[in-house]
Design goal:
The chain contains four helices and three strands; from the N terminus they run ααββαβα. It is mainly alpha-helical and about 140 residues long. The chain has a single domain, classed as Alpha-Beta Complex (Aspartate Aminotransferase, domain 1), CATH 3.90.1150. It has a three-stranded antiparallel β-sheet with strand order 1-2-3, covered by helices on one side. The longest helix is centred in the N-terminal third of the chain and has 29 residues. The radius of gyration is 18 Å and the shape is elongated.
């Protein structure tokens, strides 16, 4: 294993793969998911937590769920829309109102489709009349 790593690093194969393959792919996926969230989920009360003014890639995006979502949202998403997300509470205490979207595994079109399914699910459970306090408050975020 040591020889493989040495070879990858000394020949700059790893650096080249990161620069020319992975980073551009992740940037493209990131942009597509941010666009889908902004156009179809933000109007439903979803908050994009990632600061998109300073980042355009990576492995994950965090979304804050609207306050009309409860624990049944993830079950409904799984059962009715064939999409499995893990609630933020699996990643740490106090993150139950969030979901983490991994953008490094699925293809861009699959990620955009996932955002469409989340939108459909939210449309099915959101109140028909505006709910006061639909704004999510995040500690330390203005």
């Amino acid at each position: 294993m040591e020889m493989i790593m040495w070879s990858l690093l000394s020949t700059k194969t790893l650096q080249s793969h990161l620069s020319h393959v992975l980073i551009p792919v992740y940037q493209k996926r990131h942009s597509a998911v941010v666009s889908a969230i902004t156009t179809s989920l933000t109007p439903l009360g979803v908050k994009l937590i990632t600061d998109t003014s300073h980042t355009c890639g990576g492995w994950y995006l965090w979304m804050g769920l609207p306050n009309y979502c409860d624990g049944s949202f993830l079950e409904r998403l799984r059962d009715d829309h064939n999409l499995i997300l893990t609630g933020g509470n699996e990643f740490g205490e106090g993150l139950g109102d969030f979901v983490r979207i991994c953008i490094s595994w699925e293809a861009e079109n699959e990620l955009v489709e996932a955002m469409r399914r989340i939108s459909q699910c939210l449309q099915g459970i959101r109140p028909k009349h505006p709910v006061s306090g639909m704004d999510i408050r995040y500690p330390g975020v203005e």
